[in-house]
Design brief:
The protein contains 9 helices and 4 strands; from the N terminus they run H-H-E-H-H-H-E-H-E-H-E-H-H. It has helices at 3-12, 26-37, 56-69, 71-77, 87-90, 119-147, 163-170, 199-202, 216-245; strands at residues 48-53, 103-109, 151-155, 177-185.
Amino acid sequence: MDIDNFIDLLKSRRSIRAYKPDPIPDEYIQKIIESARWAPSGGDSQPWEFIVIKKKDVKDKIADLFVESVKPLRQAELTREKELRIPGLEMEIPEPGFKRAPVFILLCGDPRTNEAFPLTVYQNWGTEVFISNLANAFLCMQLAAKSLGLGSQWVSATGGVMEDSLKEFLNIPKELKIYDMMAVGYPAYQLGPRSPRKIDEMTHDEGYDRSKLRTDQQVKDFIKNLRKRDREELEGLMRGMRTKKA
């Protein structure tokens, strides 16, 4: 793959919240995990463990746990300035978009592998490096899925408010840490590329160019524009789903 094709792959990756019912070949799932297996990790610690979930009753239970777990998040979100609210938490959505994906892949990590780091790193910044290791693997999973013509969603709540309930439900040992879950399947709709910041705004030569430092208001306006785009995309998706049901 040349660099232009790689950048095109990055541009085309979006979080998908509606899936076709078509099953995914087992070979594809193995390739996604194989890609993550080669992710870089501090001290070559390779902390990852992958839980593949296909059974409908298990996926439905995870979706139910998600709905219950994010209720406090939604209540908190509604106290924010409206233009900053996460649309998926603010809007009433019948069910999580990832629920009907044919496969969930839960990425866990074993913090005991942090001892592979240099001692000072292990003692002072072990958690940060551990999370970076898992983030590397998760990105590999997402890009591998996209390269196979699949869509995916990064279900970030699984590594936060859902961790305790998921560990109990899926019999995950206490020694492990849930990072996040990826829902994966054939997308039921298509999204255009995101709108990243301009490269010259974020690139600095030989040191930080303080003339490019954004004000607090500029950062807030940037986030508001992101939320506006997210809201428009989600509203469009929900309209499409209602039209199909009608």
